[in-house]
Amino acid sequence: EVVRTLRLDLPALESPHESRVVEVSTDGSTAVIQTPLEPDPSRAEASAWTQLTFVDLATQTELPGSVTVTAALSSHSTLNRSGRMFYAAQADTGDLIAVDTRTGEIRRSSAVPDDPAWVQPDFGIALIGDELVAAGVGDAVRLHDRSTLALIRSIPLEGDVASLDLIADDLGGVPAGGWGGSVRVGLGLCQR
What we know:
The protein is an all-beta fold. Helices cover 0% and strands 43% of the residues. Strands 1, 2, 3, 4 and 5 form a five-stranded antiparallel sheet that branches. A four-stranded antiparallel sheet has the order 6-7-8-9, with no helix packed on it.
């Protein structure tokens, strides 16, 4: 059942094998639509780009922070509770990217350039409490400070058990899933 149809000017998909990714903030106020783009051939710093279209769902209008990120992003992303900040992992490195949905300011956890030889579109992302963001990068979970994106801790895992998705639980842990199975990573942080 279609509840609401939004009229948005989104970039065309370059091939029938590409698709858009949609995420909605937990309060239901903001959505983000990721559209893969071919990079500008005059700029060699990226192998793929991503258009982020942020939408205010109450007014059904595009937010001013919509922006093109000069990186391929993972298909898993998240918005903070109010929909003000968007978080995703860079598909080739697992480094975090945060975008302010109102201003379009882009912050990165690292200046690692894109590596077109390897792209993993499935890094999991989860917000942990009010201060951390976790990225599942296959055989590790990386914890970053949410305000600075600085890497706080990397937790090694046995095999790829954290590349597909992460969920923060109320017991201070992160259930994670990857191509090699699933695991719950205890962080020692009680969220209650």
